[in-house]
Amino acid sequence: MFDLLTQFIRHSPVIAFIKDVDGRYRHISDAWLSAFRTTEAAVVGKTDRELFEASQADDFIENDRAVMATREPSRRYEQVLVPPDVRTFLSTKFPLVDQDGVLHGLAGFAIDVTEQQRNLDDLEQQKRFLERTQAMASVGGWEFDVASRALVWTSETFRLFELGERSVTPTLEGALMLFAPEHRETVRVAHETALSKAEPFRFEVELVPRSGRRRRVRLHAVPELIDGQVYRLSGAIQDVTDERLVEEKLRHASRMDAVGQLAGGVAHDFNNMLGAIVSGAELLRFEALTPGANDALNTVLTAATQAAGLTRQLLLFSRKERSRRVPSDLHTVLADALTILQRTLDRRITLVVEQTATRSRLLADTPQLSNALINLALNARDAMPDGGTLTFRTLDDGPAIVRLEVVDTGMGMAPEVLSHIFDPFFTTKDRGRGTGLGLATVDSAVRAHEGDINVRSEVGEGTTFCLRFPVLPGDAEPATARDALPIGTQRRELLLVVDDEELVRRSLGRLLEKLGYRVLEAQDGAQALVVLASAEEKPVLVILDLMMPGLTAVETFRAAREILPGLPVLFCSGYAPEQLLASIQSEPRTGRLAKPFSTQELLGAVRGLLS
């Protein structure tokens, strides 16, 4: 019988062998000899230590001893050096025990599975590559089997749903509950339609996984058919949250560019008109007025300044102009804003001011900051249609921060509204009642002052805006309030005012005459050059509008300097592009004055250039 076994071993088409209890090879198959490229004489009677390198031999011997000791078969993969390759074998060993229970050794079979293992390794590598690619692209895959209703997900799909691969078996019903409530019916209907009508689908919805953080995903499915019947749905799910954020930023940038173009186009003409208003109001200050008329005049001047600040705030917001900050007092800025608000807010709204901050001096663009406060107040007004209380409160917030709280008793805001209030063009107002820029410009103004802003609000509980700004050191002096108008100069210098707007040109000329100057006028650059060339008495300074039709301000300036070298020029404009300013700002004996401007600002600029 044993002889029959040895013949079977010898002629076996697979690697086969018999070893005695000492581990010596007694019989081997021709396939064994072929696999290891040797002869029977070189193997029979030898142990593994005589045939293989030490570590390999020790592994074989340890496995043999375990089989003979336990008298249990062993089945395992073994990697064996068969020069020049390392081959992989599926090895089976079993003890040889006769009918009396005597152990005679062991026998074994092995199949060379090197190529199969390489294929498996390649598949595993491709799987890992696919998983990495899916993770980088945030694309998961899924399949739904119609007959078994089994749902299969890839690793990335589990990750998108924030579920562990081994923690849950995906089901259609469970997956539906992970979508936002308002989108579940959309997903369910699309899935049923794909099964019943073999229609693919592709759309975007939102996930609400366990973390609660919503993610925007794109769902895509394609039905697979046999004999016209859908037997499986294959699909993909892709996280497009970041992609949508980038698109929104691009749309925002496009809107901001549109706002900038609009603001730049409007600002010059609007500020020209405000300049005429301010100049006319300043002329009235030279007259003897009643206290009531004087108060009304101050209101006009304050309102005009705030209106100009609003235009400039829009330019700042759209990055068309830079903020111009000077030492100021927050309490003074607040007082200017309240002057406007007391005349514009509903009388059912009670204004409360609590100025408890002991350090309120800061570097501020006062029109911009004042308009931000007015915007907050108007926002509060809309939240209190039946009246309420609006409180402005200043507090010390550490040694170097002043905090301003704007508190209303209005209807408050839900979390989904609160998260978007500073987004440009976001508004909850009815069509035609809001631009969506108010709170966005407030946020922009606060950041321009190196401050921060946060909001607390609950539905029915009112809203609190908290603004924080760095204060100036103790020795920095704030800008002073309007001083009394200066007495006209006795020197009677001759000035040339160049502006294409007749209303602006005339009002500015009259104001300069009140200040003691003599004035020539020109409606454009060409006429200004004629005046400079032909006038018997030459002007000592030119006040030149930056934005005029025909000959540009820069061309007029350079030609004027050829006629009168070193002629001082004060450029005035409601708005001027940065590239235009860059071309003149380095020129000597030039200045710039933004419209509208106060008498003090005008006189200071003129005297500064003449001195």
Written description of the protein model:
The protein has 611 residues and is of the alpha+beta class. The protein folds into four domains: 2-112, Beta-Lactamase (2-Layer Sandwich); 134-239, Beta-Lactamase, CATH 3.30.450.20; 323-482, Histidine kinase-like ATPase, C-terminal domain (Heat Shock Protein 90); 494-610, Rossmann fold (3-Layer(aba) Sandwich), CATH 3.40.50.2300. The strands form five sheets. Strands 2-1-5-4-3 form a five-stranded antiparallel β-sheet, with helices on both faces. A five-stranded antiparallel β-sheet has the order 7-6-10-9-8, sandwiched between helices. Strands 12-14-15-17-16 form a five-stranded mixed β-sheet, with helices on one face. The radius of gyration is 44 Å and the shape is elongated. Residues 430-436 and 475-490 have low confidence and may be disordered.
